[in-house]
Design brief:
By secondary structure, the chain is of the alpha/beta class. It is 39% helix and 22% strand. Strands 2-1-3-4-5 form a five-stranded parallel β-sheet. It is globular and about 50 Å long.
Length: 179
């Protein structure tokens, strides 16, 4: 089976998650991982399953990701698909499910797309990588939400077992729906 993993990332962590999912799925499938910035060059009909991963920055998904989904919504709705959101809010137990994470709700409102499988993963906080403005704003957001504010902190909140389960859910879904 041919699988496309399309990602939208700001700092590279969503790409890292996509590559891990690819490593887990490539055992039984042909998998391509592509940045949404190259989405115009993609022939979606070549794929049996499409996964989209997207990060959040300042409460929003990147515009080109939303445009890609909305442009291809009819095809995506007819296809076997999965979506996951990567955001720091998901570091909190009460915000790390598809029913409690506010960015899943924002995603549905922005796209009206209903993937077969949806998940949310906590992201990575990497203060030393951020420019002055981003560091200031993110520290303020973390202060408001009782998160880490040390400007030299690098904290990966991602639950890699949850990522592994997501990949397993995709394999199980494919097997169940190809019979």
């Amino acid at each position: 089976m041919r699988i496309l993993i399309l990602y939208s990332t700001v700092d590279g962590h969503t790409q890292k998650i996509c590559e891990r999912i690819s490593d887990l799925l490539v055992i039984k499938n042909i998998v391509e991982v592509i940045d949404v910035n190259n989405a115009d060059q993609i022939n979606l009909t070549r794929y049996d399953f499409i996964i989209v991963g997207a990060s959040i920055r300042y409460g929003k998904y990147r515009r080109n990701l939303i445009q890609f989904i909305n442009k291809n919504i009819i095809f995506l709705e007819r296809s076997k698909t999965a979506f996951f959101s990567v955001n720091i809010v998901a570091r909190k137990d009460e915000k790390n499910s598809i029913t409690t994470n506010p960015y899943i709700k924002i995603f549905h409102k922005a796209t009206n797309w209903n993937p077969d499988i949806i998940s949310v993963f906590a992201g990575k906080l990497e203060y030393p990588k951020y420019n002055f403005f981003n560091k200031l704003i993110i520290r303020f957001i973390m202060w408001i939400t009782n998160g880490p504010t040390n400007p030299s902190s690098i904290i990966e909140f991602t639950n890699w077992d949850k990522v592994k389960k997501f990949a397993s859910d995709i394999d199980n879904f494919k097997e169940k729906n190809n019979k």
